[in-house]
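quick q for whoever's on today - can somebody do inverse folding on this one?? i tried earlier but teh output was garbage lol. C-alpha coordinates:
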Protein backbone atom coordinates (compact mmCIF):
# COMPACT_ATOMS: atom_id res chain seq x y z
CA UNK A 1 0.00 0.00 0.00
CA UNK A 2 1.40 3.42 -0.92
CA UNK A 3 1.86 5.98 1.79
CA UNK A 4 0.05 9.23 1.27
CA UNK A 5 1.95 12.37 2.16
CA UNK A 6 -0.14 15.40 2.89
CA UNK A 7 1.14 18.95 2.90
CA UNK A 8 0.45 21.06 5.96
CA UNK A 9 -2.71 23.08 5.67
CA UNK A 10 -1.90 26.69 4.79
CA UNK A 11 -4.13 29.08 6.58
CA UNK A 12 -4.38 32.74 5.78
CA UNK A 13 -2.83 33.51 9.15
CA UNK A 14 0.21 31.34 8.40
CA UNK A 15 0.63 32.99 5.02
CA UNK A 16 0.52 36.46 6.58
CA UNK A 17 3.01 35.39 9.27
CA UNK A 18 5.35 34.01 6.64
CA UNK A 19 5.06 37.13 4.51
CA UNK A 20 5.56 39.48 7.45
CA UNK A 21 8.60 37.54 8.63
CA UNK A 22 10.19 37.76 5.20
CA UNK A 23 9.19 41.44 4.91
CA UNK A 24 10.72 42.27 8.29
CA UNK A 25 13.92 40.37 7.49
CA UNK A 26 14.42 42.09 4.15
CA UNK A 27 13.49 45.54 5.47
CA UNK A 28 15.79 45.13 8.48
CA UNK A 29 18.60 44.06 6.17
CA UNK A 30 18.04 47.09 3.91
CA UNK A 31 17.72 49.48 6.85
CA UNK A 32 20.87 48.02 8.36
CA UNK A 33 22.76 48.31 5.10
CA UNK A 34 21.67 51.91 4.60
CA UNK A 35 22.53 52.77 8.21
CA UNK A 36 25.91 51.12 7.73
CA UNK A 37 26.59 53.26 4.66
CA UNK A 38 25.43 56.38 6.50
CA UNK A 39 27.84 55.57 9.31
CA UNK A 40 30.73 55.11 6.88
CA UNK A 41 29.87 58.41 5.21
CA UNK A 42 29.76 60.26 8.53
CA UNK A 43 33.11 58.79 9.58
CA UNK A 44 34.87 59.46 6.29
CA UNK A 45 33.38 62.78 5.16
CA UNK A 46 31.88 65.03 7.84
CA UNK A 47 31.25 67.85 5.37
CA UNK A 48 28.46 65.96 3.55
CA UNK A 49 26.06 66.47 6.43
CA UNK A 50 24.34 69.76 7.25
CA UNK A 51 25.51 71.25 10.53
CA UNK A 52 23.22 73.27 12.74
CA UNK A 53 24.88 75.54 15.28
CA UNK A 54 22.03 75.75 17.83
CA UNK A 55 20.67 72.22 18.10
CA UNK A 56 19.79 70.83 21.53
CA UNK A 57 21.30 67.41 20.79
CA UNK A 58 24.62 68.51 19.34
CA UNK A 59 26.99 65.58 18.75
CA UNK A 60 30.25 64.93 16.99
CA UNK A 61 29.38 63.56 13.55
CA UNK A 62 32.25 61.07 13.64
CA UNK A 63 30.86 59.68 16.89
CA UNK A 64 27.40 59.41 15.37
CA UNK A 65 28.99 57.73 12.37
CA UNK A 66 30.38 54.99 14.60
CA UNK A 67 27.01 54.55 16.30
CA UNK A 68 25.25 54.22 12.93
CA UNK A 69 27.96 51.84 11.71
CA UNK A 70 27.50 49.55 14.72
CA UNK A 71 23.68 49.63 14.49
CA UNK A 72 23.79 48.88 10.77
CA UNK A 73 26.17 45.95 11.18
CA UNK A 74 24.06 44.49 13.99
CA UNK A 75 20.83 44.93 11.99
CA UNK A 76 22.22 43.05 8.99
CA UNK A 77 23.28 40.12 11.22
CA UNK A 78 19.89 40.02 12.98
CA UNK A 79 18.07 39.98 9.62
CA UNK A 80 19.70 36.62 8.84
CA UNK A 81 18.29 35.27 12.11
CA UNK A 82 14.84 36.49 11.11
CA UNK A 83 14.97 34.35 7.99
CA UNK A 84 15.48 31.38 10.31
CA UNK A 85 12.47 32.61 12.37
CA UNK A 86 14.53 32.65 15.55
CA UNK A 87 12.82 34.20 18.56
CA UNK A 88 16.02 35.96 19.62
CA UNK A 89 16.12 37.64 16.20
CA UNK A 90 12.56 38.94 16.61
CA UNK A 91 13.26 40.49 19.98
CA UNK A 92 16.63 41.86 18.90
CA UNK A 93 15.13 43.12 15.63
CA UNK A 94 12.53 45.19 17.49
CA UNK A 95 15.23 46.57 19.80
CA UNK A 96 17.57 47.41 16.91
CA UNK A 97 14.78 49.08 14.91
CA UNK A 98 13.87 51.10 18.00
CA UNK A 99 17.48 52.20 18.44
CA UNK A 100 17.64 53.14 14.75
CA UNK A 101 14.55 55.33 15.28
CA UNK A 102 16.15 57.06 18.27
CA UNK A 103 19.50 57.53 16.49
CA UNK A 104 17.81 58.98 13.42
CA UNK A 105 15.62 61.27 15.50
CA UNK A 106 18.64 62.66 17.31
CA UNK A 107 20.56 63.17 14.06
CA UNK A 108 17.59 64.67 12.20
CA UNK A 109 19.05 68.20 11.80
CA UNK A 110 22.13 66.79 10.08
CA UNK A 111 20.24 64.87 7.38
CA UNK A 112 16.48 65.52 7.85
CA UNK A 113 14.83 63.79 4.89
CA UNK A 114 16.89 60.64 5.23
CA UNK A 115 16.22 60.51 8.97
CA UNK A 116 12.46 60.62 8.37
CA UNK A 117 12.75 57.85 5.75
CA UNK A 118 14.73 55.62 8.13
CA UNK A 119 12.31 56.29 10.99
CA UNK A 120 9.40 55.23 8.76
CA UNK A 121 11.17 52.07 7.56
CA UNK A 122 12.07 51.15 11.14
CA UNK A 123 8.46 51.68 12.21
CA UNK A 124 7.30 49.20 9.57
CA UNK A 125 9.93 46.73 10.76
CA UNK A 126 8.71 46.96 14.36
CA UNK A 127 5.11 46.56 13.23
CA UNK A 128 5.92 43.48 11.12
CA UNK A 129 7.94 41.84 13.90
CA UNK A 130 5.26 42.47 16.52
CA UNK A 131 2.29 41.15 14.55
CA UNK A 132 3.86 38.04 13.05
CA UNK A 133 2.85 34.69 14.44
CA UNK A 134 5.09 33.28 17.14
CA UNK A 135 7.20 30.35 15.97
CA UNK A 136 5.92 30.48 12.40
CA UNK A 137 7.96 28.65 9.82
CA UNK A 138 8.95 30.02 6.44
CA UNK A 139 7.82 27.92 3.51
CA UNK A 140 9.69 27.42 0.29
CA UNK A 141 7.99 27.84 -3.09
CA UNK A 142 6.92 24.20 -3.23
CA UNK A 143 4.81 24.64 -0.11
CA UNK A 144 6.77 22.15 1.99
CA UNK A 145 8.09 22.99 5.40
CA UNK A 146 11.77 23.76 5.65
CA UNK A 147 13.65 21.75 8.23
CA UNK A 148 15.22 23.64 11.11
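ok took a stab at it. sequence:
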Amino acid sequence: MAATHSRPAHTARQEWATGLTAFAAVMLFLAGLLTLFRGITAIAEDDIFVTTPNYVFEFDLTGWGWIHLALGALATVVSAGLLKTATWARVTGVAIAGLVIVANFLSMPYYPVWSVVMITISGFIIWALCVMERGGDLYDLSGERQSR
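fwiw Residues 139-145 have pLDDT under 50 and may be disordered. also The two ends are 30 Å apart (CA to CA). so keep that in mind when u check it
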